[in-house]
Design goal:
Layout (H helix, E strand, L loop, with lengths): L1 E6 L10 E5 L5 E4 L1 H4 L4 E7 L5 H30 L18 H15 L35 E2 L9 E4 L3 H6 L6 E2 L6 E2 L2 E2 L1 H10 L8 E4 L5 H11 L5 E4 L2 H7 L25 E2 L1 H8 L4 E5 L3 H6 E3 L3 E2 L15 H9 L8 E5 L3 H11 L4 E4 L10 E3 L3
Parallel strand pairs: 1-4, 5-11, 6-7, 6-10, 10-11, 12-17, 13-15, 13-16, 16-17
Antiparallel strand pairs: 1-2, 2-3, 8-9, 14-18
Helix pairs in contact: 6-11
Length: 388
C-alpha cells in the first residue's frame, strides 16, 4: 500500500506532474504517475507548484513534513493490525488476523496446546487419537504451487496415504485405485450443503482418522474439491487431491481394482475450523473489512443476473484445463494477479458447487480463502440483482 502526494513542481526546469511515494517501509520516493498507476494507495494529497524555485523548495519542505507525519500514522496502523485485535499486544485466540490467517492459525494452535483447550468434536470418548500425524511428502512435479503438498500426480501416489474415492458407489464398484476406500461425497451433505454430523459418520464408516494423511480423488465434478474443503473445515491436517481425478489415474496406467477395500470403522475426531465457513452471522463483519475480497465462482451469466456487492467474477473452470487438471503455477499466477487478489488479505468464495474448486485452487496458491456455502446470500442486503 502506498501514500501518494501529488506535486506539480518537482523539476527545477520543467513544470510537470510528479508523485511522491511513501512506501510500506515508510521511505519517501519520487516517481511519475504512470509508474504508480494501478498500485493500491492509502490516500492522495494534491499540492500545486509555482514558478519560483524558492517557493517550490519551501512548499517541498512543508510537504515533506506532512508526508512524514502521515507515514508515521500509517506505520502505527500496520502495527495495530498486527496485534490481532488486542490493545496489549498479547495473542487473541478469538480475533482472526485476516492479513496473515495461516500464521494466526499456527499461533492459535500453539496457544490452545499451552492452555490445554480444544475439545474434539464427534468423539464418544472425548480423547483424540494418540497416533502421530503422517506428514505429506511433496510431489516433485507439483513444485511451483505455493502449498504444493495439497496436490498429488497420478504417477507418484504414496503408499502411506489413505486413499479416498469420493465418486458414487456404482463408479467405485466398476473400478477404483487399488486400496482406495469408498466415501461418497454426497453422504457428507444434507440439502446440498455440508452436514458435519453426517460427514463425521461417513468418515467413520470409511475408517478415517484425523491424524492420517489422506489422498482424495473423484470424477470430473466438484466432489473431490468439496471433500477437500469439508475435511479442512473439520480440522483434517494432511489432505491432498489427485490432480485430474480417476481419469488421470487410468491414463497414468493404474489398473482398476474391482474388489472392495475393507477397513475398521473409526471413531473420527474433528476440530471445527469456523473461519473456513462464512455464515449469515458474520457476513456483515467480513464484508466491512477493507482487506476482504469477494469472488464469484459461477458462470458469468449467473454472475450477471445476481451477485454479492463488489464481487469479482472468477469462474472456477478458468483454473482448470479441459482434462480437469489444475493449471500450471505460472498460468494461475497470471490469472489471479490480473484480478489484483490480495495475498495478505482474505477472499470470500461463493457460488457453490463451483466455489469448492475455486477454494481449492486458491489454497493451493497460498491464499487465505474462506467459503460461503449455499445461496442464502441472495436474501441479504448485500445481494445485487440486474433483474427488475
Amino acid at each position: 500500500m502506498y501514500l501518494l502526494v501529488h506535486y506539480s513542481a518537482c523539476n527545477c526546469y520543467d513544470v510537470h506532474q510528479c508523485v511522491f511515494i511513501v512506501s510500506r517501509s515508510g521511505r519517501l520516493e519520487i516517481s511519475k504517475p504512470e509508474i504508480v498507476a494501478g498500485r493500491r494507495t492509502l490516500g492522495v494529497i494534491s499540492m500545486g507548484g509555482g514558478v519560483s524555485r524558492p517557493e517550490r523548495m519551501q512548499k517541498l519542505a512543508g510537504m515533506t513534513l506532512i508526508v512524514s507525519l502521515l507515514a508515521a500514522l500509517y506505520i502505527n496502523l500496520i502495527i495495530s493490525i498486527a496485534l490481532a485485535g488486542t490493545e496489549t499486544g498479547e495473542f487473541c485466540p478469538t480475533c482472526p488476523d485476516w492479513t496473515d490467517l495461516d500464521g494466526w492459525l499456527a499461533k492459535k494452535e500453539a496457544y490452545e496446546k499451552a492452555q490445554g483447550i480444544g475439545q474434539p468434536v464427534g468423539s464418544q470418548s472425548g480423547q483424540p487419537n494418540s497416533v502421530a500425524p503422517a506428514s505429506l511428502k511433496v510431489d516433485p512435479s507439483a513444485k511451483g504451487y505455493l502449498v504444493n503438498k495439497l496436490l498429488t500426480r497420478a504417477s507418484i501416489i504414496q503408499k502411506d496415504q489413505v486413499i479416498l474415492d469420493v465418486r458414487d458407489p456404482q463408479d467405485y464398484q466398476s473400478g477404483h485405485i487399488p486400496g482406495a476406500r469408498s466415501l461418497y461425497w454426497k453422504d457428507m451433505q444434507k440439502g446440498g450443503i455440508l452436514d458435519p454430523d453426517l460427514a463425521i459418520k461417513a468418515l467413520e464408516r470409511a475408517g478415517v482418522n484425523r491424524n492420517e494423511s489422506l489422498l482424495v480423488y473423484g470424477g470430473s465434478d466438484e466432489g473431490a474439491a468439496f471433500v477437500f474443503w469439508a475435511l479442512s473445515y473439520l480440522g483434517q491436517k494432511d489432505v491432498s487431491l489427485l490432480d485430474g481425478g480417476a481419469d488421470a489415474a487410468w491414463s497414468a496406467g493404474i489398473k482398476k481394482d474391482v474388489s472392495k477395500t475393507t477397513s475398521t470403522e473409526s471413531n473420527y475426531t474433528a476440530r471445527i475450523v469456523p473461519w473456513l465457513l462464512v455464515k449469515p452471522v458474520n457476513l456483515d463483519r467480513l464484508l466491512a473489512r477493507s482487506d476482504v475480497q469477494i469472488l464469484d465462482a459461477r458462470d458469468y451469466s449467473d454472475y450477471g443476473m445476481s451477485m454479492l456487492a463488489k464481487a469479482i467474477s472468477l469462474t472456477a473452470e478458468m483454473l482448470y484445463d479441459d482434462d480437469s487438471k489444475i493449471k500450471d503455477p505460472a498460468s494461475l499466477n497470471d490469472l489471479l494477479s490480473r484480478r489484483s487478489l490480495n495475498e495478505k488479505g482474505a477472499q470470500i468464495v461463493y457460488g457453490t458447487p463451483q466455489a469448492y474448486r475455486l477454494f481449492y485452487g486458491l489454497k493451493l496458491m497460498g491464499y487465505n480463502a474462506t467459503l460461503l456455502e449455499g445461496d442464502w446470500w441472495m436474501k441479504t442486503k448485500w445481494a445485487v440483482s440486474s433483474v427488475k
